[in-house]
Structures are given as structure tokens and as C-alpha cells.
Amino acid sequence: MTAATERTSDPAERVWDPTRAFGLIEPPPLASATLIRDEFLRLDTARQQAGWAKAQVVVLDATGRTPVELPAPPAVRRPGELGDAGDGRARLVTRPATELGDTPPPAAVLLGEADGVLYWAQRVEPAEPAGDARWLSLFTVGGELAPLDAALLTTAIALLTWHDRARFCARDGSLTRPTKAGWARECAAENHEEFPRTDPAIICLVHDGADQVLLARQTTWPAGRMSVLAGFVEAGESLEACVAREIAEEVGVDVRDVGYLGSQAWPFPRSLMVGFQAVADPAQPIRLDGAEIAEARWLRRGDLVEALKRGDWGVPADDGQLLLPGRMSIARTMIESWVAAG
User: Which intervals hold domain Nudix hydrolase (predicted)?
Assistant: First the structure.
């Protein structure tokens, strides 16, 4: 099959070869399912009120930061790491819901339930947190959070960001108001309902079926910082077709044996990262798109082993040393899983 035929054939009809596949060694950090998302609870104001007395609130400032208590630092720590004492997890500092009043305020959104406790979120003005807590962003601390805290913060950022950007109806331009405990907005003119948007994006680890993987560097990244390829799904496009198109557009490489790996939320501002693997021929010339990608090259498993030991993007790079994505990203989990499979 020629390269041109490969690129224009239907990716969904290509045979996935499980002998070349690998799986994720653990769920991505922001893929936790520990938060109960109860649609009926969102409609039940009596249950919301009954649970308010022991409910907790995740507070975010205008930039998306929240108070976080970091673990005590170990005796030796690599640059960019937050710490590794106790269970090695950072913790959200939530507020008792009753500090906001006797009932849920209109600006609060219901995140869900865990261990019999309702969790809400609301924007606040930042104040000095108690103890050793610091106001930090999900980008800074996402890979260090316990599963429930990661789910709470990810959902809070996604929901509150949507509310900030959905104040007017997309149909008639009238003002909208929150309903269903923050999981919908209704326009004042015609009662049209709108719901939080999620934009799917593919992220794909391309390998040769043996010992090489294809990584790339965006034009805005410093030398040495590399990751797997990614791109947004277009209207009317399948995920598999997006994988083939994005990789062909960005680096000029044709892929086959596209297989699903996993997914995770990416609320920057409202994406869902859907992870795939695919096989390509390293002998095919790389053609950079000239816009988004500044560099792309095939690397061997040993190169990645050394880079993983070195740390991640938070570590200062010397002379363009290879640095891989941080622990919060599914890209890191995909790379670690491919290395482990070898």
C-alpha cells in the first residue's frame, strides 16, 4: 500500500494488531472515578440542603488556584518535585460549607459526593490559608494530588470556567442563569438550556512496533522538551480518523494499527484527552508542518529510560537534554507504559 493510499483510507477499517500493543500501567492522574456524579442529586434541593451541614467546598480564585497542603519534603528531592513524605500526596484545603451560609449560595456548583459528603465549588477572593498551605494551580500540583482531590479540583475548574464563559445564550444572546446545582444554564428569554461543553482531543504515542517512539517539540517549547503528538477532533470526525489526520498534518507520517489506551479530563479550558497508540515506519521521512511543530524525531527506549530518571519539564535542562511531560499529563503515563512494556 502506498503512502497516499494509506493516508486516505478509512482509519476505522484498519486492522488493529494486538501483538504490537501495550496498555497503561496505571490510570492517568486526572482520570479518577472516586467522585460520585449523581444526576438525581443535582435536581434534589432537599437532599442538597440536608447534606449542607457537613458538606465541603473547594474554593478557587479567579486564576484557578486553590489552597493546597503539600507533603513534608524528603531529605533528597529532585528539582521540580513537590515532596514525598507520608503517602506522598498533596491535599486540597476545603472549607466547611456552612462558612458560606445556611444554604448553598447561587454561585456554588455541586461537584458530587464521596463517602457520604457532598462537595461543592465556588470562586472566592484569595486569602492567606492556614498552616503551610499555598494557593496553587492544577498545572502545578495535579500530579501530586490524591485521587479524590484530583477529581474534585479537575471538576471544579471545568465547571466554574464554563460558567464564567457561558453567561449569554448562544441562541438569542440573552442572559443565562445557573440551574441543576450548576450543571446547566437556562436563558432568560426562551428558557433554552445549555450544558457544560467538553472538547475531545486525541493524544497518540506513535511507535515502530519494536524499540523506537516518535516524539515532537512544539515551537513554543524550549530545546529538549518533547512529548507525544496531539490535536483536536474536528466536527464530523471519528477519533481514529483524527489520529491519522493530526499525525500526517504535523509530522507527515502515516500511521496504522490505531488502538485506544485511556483518557483523562484536561480542563484547560474544557478538553478531554483521549489517548491512543499507533504504529508507523521510522524509515518514512518526517515532514514538519512548519507552524506548530519545531522538531520531531525517533528515539530509542533507552533514551526515554534515561529521561524518565532525569525528571520532567520542571527540571532545568542543560544543553537541550531530553525532558518528558510532567506526571499530571496522560502523556507521561503513556510514555512510562510504553517503556515498561519493553
Answer: 196-321
CA dist., res. 278 & res. 210, Å (int): 12
Strands (E), 174-254: 176-179, 184-187, 193-194, 199-207, 212-218, 229-232
Residue 190 φ then ψ, to 5°: -125, 5
Q: How far is residue 23's CA from residue 161's CA, in Å, rounded to a whole number?
A: 32
> H or E element: which one contains 302?
helix 301-310
Give 210-235 pLDDT, tens digit per residue: 999 999 999 999 999 999 999 999 99
Respond yes or no on whether the N-terminal peptide bond of residue 282 is cis (omega within 30° of 0): no
C-alpha cell at 83: 515532596
Instruction: For Cα atoms 120, 331, 252, give the angle at the middle one, nearest 5 degrees.
Output: 130
Helices H, strands E: what count in the chain? 8, 16
Phi, psi of 9 (to 5 degrees): -70, 160
Q: Which domains does the chain have, with CATH numbers?
A: 3-27+198-341 (3.90.79.10), 39-165 (3.90.79), 169-196 (no CATH)
Whether 11 contacts 241, CB under 8 Å:
yes
pLDDT, tens only, 96-106: 999 999 999 99
- Among 71-80, 261-270, 301-310, 331-340, the minimum mean pLDDT is found in 71-80
